[in-house]
Structure formats: structure tokens, C-alpha cells
Amino acid sequence: MGMSVTTSVATEDDAERILKLQYLCYQGEAELYGDWAIDPLTESLESVRAELKNRHMLVARLGDEVVGAVRGWVDADGIGRIERLCVHPRMQRHGLGTRLVRAMETLLTAEDPSPRSFRLSTGHRSVGNLRLYQRLGYRRVDVEEVNSRLSFVGLEKSVEAQNLAATA
Ligand SMILES: CC(C)(COP(=O)(O)OP(=O)(O)OC[C@H]1O[C@@H](n2cnc3c(N)ncnc32)[C@H](O)[C@@H]1OP(=O)(O)O)[C@@H](O)C(=O)NCCC(=O)NCCS
């Protein structure tokens, strides 16, 4: 039987592995937008280390290997923000991305004060990501033009919607 994937809170030792995974996973996005300077590809190790201290980070592991990651925090407006979701190309389309988003939503819900809604965003041409987030109950709320090639589509869902999905 194969090893199973476990989801857990990232530790300081994971910083390098998270950055490497992110670098690998976001190549497709870079190609899609013809832009290899997107934030996930230019982030420094120091930045990942700082976020490990200041934000919630979850990783999916297969043995010692980090095969998935996601970050989250509750912002000043009480919105649970979810970012930098990535799953190793070899492991994609088996539900791991969904699992990581749901686990992050649960983690953020336990914050005090707990968020009233969740928000994430993706590039306007990333139709796979948009489909994934819509299936998770997120709805488009705004579009922000970054440059002529890229706009960010903002998606949100209420915490009530998440609770309903969890009990369905
Ligand atoms: C987005 C990502 C984390 C999804 O991880 P995953 O483990 O494959 O997610 P799940 O298995 O839970 O869901 C798969 C769904 O994601 C969507 N999807 C995401 N990327 C896709 C792609 N390139 N092609 C087709 N579908 C894609 C589809 O809706 C798919 O559902 P389907 O298989 O029924 O068509 C992964 O594709 C990834 O790392 N992508 C590169 C980084 C990235 O774009 N991150 C999101 C930034 S906002």
C-alpha cells in the first residue's frame, strides 16, 4: 500500500521545502501570463520564514516530502485570507488542494475573533483555479488589474457557507 498524505502545521524547518515546492508549482502560472516575476516565483527564503512566524501555514506531506502548502491569516477587517495554495504537479487533481483550503478555513475559524468570511484570489486566466474555488463555495467579488497581462479575481465566501458545506 502507498504512503498516505498528511496535513499539518508547517514548522521552521519547512521554509526551504515550501519555497522549492512553490517555485515548481507556479511555473505553469508564469507561463500562462508570460511573467516569471510573479510574487510566488520571486519570494525570498527570509519572506517565507517571516510568514511562518506571522501567519498560519499548512503543509501536506508524503513521508518527508512536502507536496502541498497553503498560507492564511485573519486581516484587520476580520476576513480570513487564504494564499499561495500549491500542490506538487505529480500529486495534483486528487483532492489535495481542496483538503488544504478546507483545513485552512477550519484553522482560521478557530482564531479569536473568528473571521466573518474567507477571501482568496487568482489570476483571471487561471480557469482551473477559478473552478476549484467556485466548487469550494467561493463567489467572485471583484477584479483588480495588476498590469496589461494580469488581473486578480477576488473571491469570497461567508463563514456560514463554509459551515453548511462542512455539514452537507
Ligand atoms: C491549484 C492547485 C493547488 C490545485 O491542487 P489540486 O490538488 O490539484 O486540487 P484538487 O485536486 O483539490 O482540485 C482539482 C481541481 O482544481 C482545478 N484545477 C486547478 N488547476 C487546474 C489545471 N491546471 N487544470 C485543470 N484543472 C485545474 C480543477 O477544477 C480541478 O478539478 P477537476 O480535476 O475535477 O477538473 C494546483 O493545481 C497547483 O498547485 N497549481 C499551481 C499553483 C496555483 O495556481 N495555485 C493557486 C494560486 S491562486
From TrEMBL:
Keywords for this protein:
Acyltransferase, Transferase
Which PROSITE patterns does this chain map to?
A: GNAT
Query: Transmembrane segments in this chain: where?
Result: none
Q: What are the residue boundaries of the N-acetyltransferase domain, all occurrences included? A: 5-160
GO MF terms held by the record: acyltransferase activity, transferring groups other than amino-acyl groups
Signal sequence range: none
A Pfam match is Acetyltransf_1
Matching PANTHER family: AMINOALKYLPHOSPHONATE N-ACETYLTRANSFERASE-RELATED, AMINOALKYLPHOSPHONATE N-ACETYLTRANSFERASE-RELATED-RELATED
What name does the UniProt record give this protein?
GNAT family N-acetyltransferase
The organism named in the record is: Streptacidiphilus fuscans
